[in-house]
Specification:
Oligomer: single chain
CATH superfamily of the largest domain: P-loop containing nucleotide triphosphate hydrolases
Shape: globular
Structural class: alpha/beta
CATH topology of the largest domain: Rossmann fold
Mean pLDDT: 93
Number of strands: 10
Low-confidence stretches: none
Strand content: 25-35%
Length: about 240
């Protein structure tokens, strides 16, 4: 299957601390891939390396056929990789519409960006809040705005970092539906998630990290019954 992202022997060290070590896996185009693992497994560190926040110490990242290992974050975004952050990074003094407009300017000139901003807000269920300062939104709305800002860059690949954290069961179902809708529009999804029910229900493939290393990858069914995964991630209980 055609891969939109290939991660080859990805290693990231901070001084003497090795956060990621020799991680290799690929993300099939148009798929949803979930990354799971206990706290400290190196999941967000890997996202930061993929999106250009900091470079790998060694290894390669190939995105849509291009080596982006040393590329800058803004260039990676312009190439078609969008991401969210675990803690929403909205511009709180600006309106919801202005937040999305800034993201639209990554790919569009002002006239088109204005139209695209309205379209994204409509699609994300945030249009009624377009004139509200981003800082006044509640947790669910801020998480949705975080996704909207990433979607507004017109990504081919979207990295989602724990978008379900802090949500209720109903809110999680709505967020899961949104992820599926984005995927059905042709956006490949790579998501870090602690809510295993969500990962199992929406992912085509699951990647398990533990101690900064790849423990295994496979279908949700394969991962859910793997003894090493159960031991490392769930303390010996089944899902």
């Amino acid at each position: 299957m055609d891969s939109i992202l290939q991660i080859v022997e990805a290693t990231k060290s901070f001084g003497g601390l090795v956060a990621n070590s020799g991680i290799t896996f690929d993300v099939p185009r148009h798929s949803i891939v979930g990354i799971v693992g206990p706290n400290g497994a190196g999941k967000t560190t890997l996202f930061n390396s993929l999106s250009g926040v900091h470079p790998l110490t060694s290894g390669k990242v190939i995105f849509d056929g291009t080596d982006i290992t040393r590329a800058k974050a803004y260039d990676i975004c312009a190439m078609g990789m969008g991401r969210t952050f675990q803690i929403p990074q909205s511009l709180n003094e600006m309106t919801v519409w202005e937040n999305v407009l800034v993201a639209c300017l990554c790919k569009h000139k002002m006239g088109q960006a204005r139209e695209r901003a309205d379209q994204v807000l409509e699609e994300m269920g945030l249009y009624d809040f377009r004139d509200a300062p981003a800082g006044t939104l509640n947790v669910v709305q801020k998480k949705r705005l975080e996704i909207a800002r990433a979607v507004a860059t017109d990504p081919k690949l979207l990295l989602l970092d724990e978008t379900m954290a802090g949500l209720t069961g109903i809110e999680r179902k709505e967020a899961s539906q949104l992820i599926r809708q984005l995927n059905q529009k042709g956006i490949t999804i790579l998501m870090i998630e602690h809510v295993m029910e969500i990962v199992m229900n929406v992912s085509d493939k699951v990647v398990v990290l533990n101690g900064g290393k790849l423990l295994m990858e496979g279908t949700p069914e394969e991962v859910s019954v793997d003894e090493e995964v159960i031991s490392a991630y769930l303390g010996g209980t089944t899902w």
